[in-house]
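Recall from the previous chapter that SMILES is a line notation for molecules. Here it describes zinc ion.
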Amino acid sequence: MNAIGVDVGGTKIAAGVVTPQGEILKEARYPTPTSSGRLVASIARAVAEVRDGFEVGGVCLAVPGLILAQENKVVFSPNLHAVEGVPLKKELEPRIGLPLTIENDGNAAAWGEFRFGAGREVDHLVFVTLGTGIGGGVITHGILMRGAQGSGGELGHVTVHATGPRCACGNHGCLEALASGTAIGRRGREVASERPASALGRLAVERKVLGEDVTELAQKGDEAALSVLEETGTWLGIGLAGFVNVFNPEVVAIGGGVAKAGELILEAARREVHLRARPPSRDLAEIKVASLGPESGVLGAAALARDPSSGEYLLGS
Ligand SMILES: [Zn+2]
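With both inputs in hand, we obtain:
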């Protein structure tokens, strides 16, 4: 049966009716409100809009932040405070009239790639999404690894540099603080001031350099921008080497906006994994760009709505 996946992001809410085969039948997008009351109302509206005319068995919300699965609640969400502490299941189920669960957005996107994308041929997948922050998820033996409370799989917050830059989570030197789009922008601005004659340096005179600017200039061959991505890929690889050693995945899929830099980041990341991870895990893991793009959250959440516990379809296919 169809299910609805809702990706609740920092700037927009995307809801979609999804078939068991991963086809999105109808989709709706709304801006994310900043108050809790309006956030709940907008999610309900998005679900009602896409549900119209379709037979649907359940809904899963993919939300940013640390969740307590048993309470269906987000306890900490630095990029979306409006969702913190809101009893989403209790508030939304009566309005929607369908069973509802919540899942961390990185976990949901990982599940999307596992069911329908870069991990569909394998049972062991590590998915890392590089955007404003870094999220991700781990699937092992075909099961989504959530940990004891549902807040596991926070791949962006492993420490890779003990005295590194401060992270949004409060720690120093998290992978997120060194390899996210935000980190690329910060490093890009530093390198721009060190190398004023580079294209990166010239852009910095005109306006604030962002992560996507660095990628764009690197793709045009600017050495300064290329060096920032090389450095980013090295940090990413240090993180991935740890994941490869711990989880022994068949595929490591890299998603999110930063993945557009492709080989400009992945080459350095693979080199680092080769240096730091151990065989046989190191030799098995295929590190590649994820295949679903921004739809992975909606697709994964919808698939999880069918069975939030083990990932197998409960509602029939
Ligand atoms: Zn952190």
